[in-house]
Records
---
Amino acid sequence: MEKHRQALLDARGKILGKLNSETEHRIQWLMKFIDIEDELEELAHRQSQWTIKGKLTSSGDSRRRIDKYSG
């Protein structure tokens, strides 16, 4: 009976070890996923700032051209 109990405890330990390992892997993949999402968000933010700055710069250039030719 003790051997059977020990075999069950060993099997349980192996299963728990695999579950912990899978959980660790899932956590690592989730962290990588979150890092990618953060980087994509940062790139989108930079792109929108660049677009806004580009529009401001180009409209400023247009005003300068108009002033240049109106004088």
---
Amino acid sequence: FLHFLKTDQELSTATGIQNFQLFDSIVAAIKIVAPHFNKHTSVLNIRERVLMTFMKLKQNLSYSFLSILFPTVSVRYCSEIICNMLDILGEVLEPCIHFPLRDEILRNMPLCFADYPDTCII
């Protein structure tokens, strides 16, 4: 299915990933964190697995519809691929999430949360 996406706009519409450079960076990071994915033991390569996963996240496509877009994969296997990729993406993307220090959180806390000093994330 990836060959249908020609422009950054099409990629962004389908997956929420803004451009192919970022998409390729995510794929490269997965190859480092999960080198066993480099082996072609699956009917989908890493790029296709990442694409499928982000399409599910962005569009909330059913597994049945994903299996139509990726015809070499059964409905059940779509679910397995996405669950597995979510674990790997969590590991890969965790360092990209910045949690501010407690003092910074308290300085920027909306007034309506003044009675909830233990709040860290809204």
---
Amino acid sequence: MPSLDLRYIAAPMVKQADGPFRLLVRKYGASLTYTQMLLPDRILNDQDYLEYHLRDLSIASDDGLERPVVIQLCGHDPQTIVKAGRKLQGHCDAIDLNLGCPQESARDGHFGAYLLGQKNWPLVEEIVSAMSSSFSVPVTAKLRLCQPSHATLDLSQRLEACGVSWVTLHARNVSARRRRQGSANLDEVKRLKGNLQVPVVSNGNVREFSDLLANTEYTGADGVMVGETLLGNP
């Protein structure tokens, strides 16, 4: 079980979750922040990209609010992800595998939420096992709902067996066009919490602070992750 405080987490948001934003939400009470999704191929092959994100991770504040931070990686090749993670692990407190991105770029690149189909589970297990055995920091996974309904728990239990330190569930279905269609199904978060040994973080349905508290009370989750709501009111 990680020693990190999972109660109030700022989500990984592409082109939003940079260093200054992470410092801002830490100042206003986030216990943990995530970087935006980073691309392992570019970490390994684009020196400017690597240096940019290392500078972003080195941003410092007088009161130490830049840490703790989780780096989120995506991809479908275990060795590429491991090699990229090894370059970054000294600059973070955990590394997360993105299994939730629904965007068309994720579909085209075969990563994110497009690894959630059961035919991809052996690959996901290979990736997470490689990460868990290779990194000096905890490994986590953030996912969306799988189909059929029992599959979300089934995959989460497999992730647990592969060594993740916690699971974050954005309890919505995968949709490239409507990423937040409808309310998140918090019953699925509750199901994970009742069946996993590792901590569970709930993501979805938070528009104000009272929603965060209600989410925790209903699901029993160890923490709540908040995304775009923070852009308007950190």
